[in-house]
């Protein structure tokens, strides 16, 4: 079944790959997280440091994955990496988690949020939130069901559009802000905001998440051994500049206590103040386009994990999900199966809560990947298989591991029930693997 991999179209060059990294990370977090990060940090100095610290931890993680990705050009991302490093069972469980649980929940939560904002912006009935979410998810699914140059182009367009308000907010804050961005403290931190610098960093790490999605489509990247490391590293650097820049602009434009009071409405209030009612509306439209771009990144990425697993025979109905549409050269059955799961989550569950629950196992598999850097270095001490060798080895993967362990400890302390649910869902994949592997061995 491995021949199907060769039928994929390598339609993602450096620009589209860069847009995928930037566009998938930057969703709505930068527009809505300013208040909560500042409230947790307690001062603008600490909040700025939190955004920088979260960015550096993410960069260390991205560079670690870039080194591994430069050695493997097969579609599937961490499913492939973990399988090659630790064996099939661990690779399967990593893929299972993304296909059954995390991927659909992320698609569903982004689409659901789009539906809420869309209805609110145009003053429509609340009853249209779910239909709007399903339409958004289906629309992006259609774009991904035609040749991937269209999804690549859509990613470039939406990423460009979402960068415009970010640049505008940064410029306005730096040149027209009336306050000192640094040195402000929050007078009264509410109970929900307590937790200090560590909680603020945790909030930024969630805003930075999404960079790993590019690794899932290696089979559709032109010259992936060189393009993937560049796109991940430069993409994360662009996001760090954007996040830190917007934070500085917001803190320069509004008093710290006002930012905390405004909460999720901070950037909308700032945009309306800076550019009038029309400016506020344009920012809302840009956020909607930003969400579509993030959704596109997820739909480009997660179904490729399903396709890769099916291509190896390691998923129920593998023959169907490993098929590629010969016109578009995209794995349409895998795409629409995961969209259907996302729609079911929108209708019957709270996908936002499910994606939060999945954070623990997601970062658990990240840790395995980061440890894998050391294992691959031992297997190939001369670097004959590496097209990219990270600087500052071994400190960067150590930093990535420490950051991920911090996320895991925080999840256990704050959401133990969610942690246990996520472990249980991943564990359900084990009997599925046993059945599938027995079937493969009997052939």
Automatic annotation (TrEMBL):
GO terms for molecular function: L-amino acid transmembrane transporter activity. The keyword rRNA-binding does not apply. It is a multi-pass membrane protein. Its main location: membrane. Keywords: Membrane, Transmembrane, Transmembrane helix. It is found in: Membrane. The chain crosses the membrane at residues 12-32, 48-68, 89-118, 130-147, 159-177, 197-219, 231-254, 274-295, 334-351, 357-376, 388-407, 419-436. It holds the Pfam family AA_permease_2. One of its GO terms (cellular component) is membrane. Coiled coil: none annotated. PANTHER family: AMINO ACID TRANSPORTER, SOBREMESA, ISOFORM B. This is Serine/threonine exchanger SteT. It comes from Leuconostoc suionicum.
